[in-house]
UniProtKB/TrEMBL annotation:
Signal peptide: none annotated. One of its GO terms (cellular component) is TRAPP complex. It is found in: Endoplasmic reticulum; Golgi apparatus, cis-Golgi network. It comes from Bemisia tabaci (Sweetpotato whitefly). Its main location: endoplasmic reticulum. SMART domains: Sybindin. This is Trafficking protein particle complex subunit.
Amino acid sequence: MTIHNLYIFDRSGILLYYAEWNRLKQSGITREEEAKLMFGMLWSIKSFVCKISPLDTKKGFLCYKTNKYALHYFETPTGLKFILNTDVNAQNVRELLYQIYRQVFVEYVIKNPECNLKEPIKSELFKSQLDAFVKQSPIFGLKSY
């Protein structure tokens, strides 16, 4: 299994949704503190990438890798931020993030009149559809070596 967890933030840094599938190590801090650290790190990395890039950065920051995991980033034009942590060998993750946004988030959150985009997502339908979508992904079933 190579997908570890997913964060969805709004443009101002509110954690709208968090899910995990194969997270073996916990951070030791609250989910709220972890979300603040994640959002702050993303803001800093995006700023750093824009300032040091020798070329025009149309797409900006996309991902980073460590020896244990990779963090993949997708931002919508409206400022929603999707962050997916995977195994370092996972491929086509940006496309998966786009599909999560288009096929799950838009369908079960944006088009749902009961969902308020200024509050964390509580829709059980969204949660179940996201879980099923991620688990059917070819990335989900890969083994780490």
